[in-house]
Structures are given as structure tokens and as C-alpha cells.
Amino acid sequence: MEKLNKSQIIKLLPHREPMLLIDELINIKKLFSATAIMNVKKNKFYVDGHFPGQPVLPGVLIIEAFGQAAAALTAHGIDKETYENKLVYLMSVEKARFRNPVIPDCKLELNIEAIRSHGRVWKYKGVAFVEKKKMADAQWSATIVDRK
Fold first, then answer.
1. What is the 3-state secondary structure (H, E, C) of 86-147?
2. Positions of the chain with pLDDT lower than 70, given as ranges
């Protein structure tokens, strides 16, 4: 199975620091599934001010990381010319559940799967784990649009 490191992900996504949340994409099954790795660190922007003294990764950033992982999976899998000058935008989030707080310093594993695609619209689902403990899960839709 294939894997992508951070510099390879940067070539696929428009996100840059500090908003590029995923560090690796592993176990890639082309256009079907992958696992994204997010190294949740105490020194990241999302920890400052989010419950000082008892930091926790905001749930909305778990959803953002799901979206980035799905965009990288899709961009990596489709024809490069098809994806050139395109962006993947989040359209909807459904059934998001935050089961346990994600506490820095940990490795968040985001298992994502493409459920279906119809033209430029894709639907995904994902489950996030820390040390095999389920932290969150969600379904979401995204669309591929022309970069302006």
C-alpha cells in the first residue's frame, strides 16, 4: 500500500502551516480509503487558549483533518490533469460525534473511506482513534471546484 509524507501532501493540498493538520497519509487504497496521521502537539496554534491548563484538540479541527485527509486521498487518486487548478471544498458534515477528548501530545489516526462519488461531489466517512480508542466519527460531503 502507498503512503504520502507531509511534503507530498503539500503538493496535493492548498493548506499550509498552521492550517495543514495532517502529517502523513498511509494505507492508501486508491480512491477508496486511507489513514491520515495527525500529530497533536502542545505547541500547536489550536492548543493556545483552548482550555488553558487542560488543553484539548477542538472537535471542529478533527472534522477539518478528516476533510484534508479525504481531499488528499482524492487528489492523489484522480488523474493529475483533472485535479490541476482545482480545490476540494467541504459541503456538509453529518453524524459527527465526539466520543472522547483528544489531549495533546498524541497521534490521532483518522481512518477515512470514500463512500461514493457523483461527478464532482464525493461522500466520505471517517473514524478517529488514539491508541485504538475511538475519539470521533463523522460523514461529510465535498466537491471539486475550479481554482480561481
1. EEEEEEEEEEEEECCCCCCCEEEEEEEEEEEEECCEEEEEEEEEECCEEEEEEEEEEEEEEC
2. none
Q: Which SS3 state, helix, strand or coil, does residue 83 take?
A: helix
Active-site positions?
Answer: 50
In one-letter notation, the amino acid at residue 107 is: K
User: Which residues have CB under 8 Å from 56's CB, separation 6+?
Assistant: 50, 101, 102, 103
Measure the CA–CA gap between 117 and 104, rounded to whole angstroms.
34
Location of C-alpha cell 501530545: 105
pLDDT of residue 147: 86
Say which CATH architecture domain 2-146 belongs to. Answer: Roll (3.10)
**Can you read off the three cell numbers belonging to residue 148?**
480561481
Distance CA(88)–CA(122), nearest Å, equals 10
DSSP secondary structure, 56-74, as one string? ---HHHHHHHHHHHHHHHH
Domain coordinates in residue numbering, the chain = 2-146
Alpha helices in 5-58 (DSSP H): 6-12
Are 4 and 28 a contacting pair, CB within 8 Å? yes
